[in-house]
Specification:
Number of helices: 7
Strand content: 5-15%
Shape: elongated
Strand order of the largest sheet: 1-2
Radius of gyration: 18 Å
Largest sheet: 2 strands, antiparallel
CATH class of one domain: Mainly Alpha
Distance between the termini: 37 Å
Order of helices and strands: HHHEEHHHH
CATH architecture of one domain: Orthogonal Bundle
Helix content: 40-55%
CATH superfamily of one domain: Winged helix-like DNA-binding domain superfamily/Winged helix DNA-binding domain
Amino acid sequence: MKLSTKGRYAVTAMLDLALHDVDRPVTLADISECQAISLSYLEQLFARLRQHGLVRGVRGPGGGYRLGRPADAISIADIVMAVDERVNITRCGGNEDCYRGERCLTHVLWSDLSAQIFDFLDGITLAHLLASPAVQAAARGQDSRFRRRNSECVPA
């Protein structure tokens, strides 16, 4: 499976946004500070997420980002695919030319596994993660460490 930091950071940023998109938009600077993700990298990721309707920008004072759809309508697969990540672990990228231009002996195995991984990620929404006690505990720890208030991340 080709899941680089791009996909991981996108999921982390979207979960942070979902956790804190309550009263007002969340700034990329807040997500950057609290999640230790480069601001310029987040800007690139959010441009792609915005193109896919997963987030929407709010301009002006107090602006930032909000979820583009309800948390229960955004799957982890949606996020990963939006930032151009492939959920495919075949050597050939699904082209069936892995062995001298033809399908290799194990192509079907890796292709089936890729489909199962995609289905797994597609079956998990941001809302599922938001409801997880482990995610809630981690969020409380981060919020207290950064004294996060009103969606602003201020180092403690």
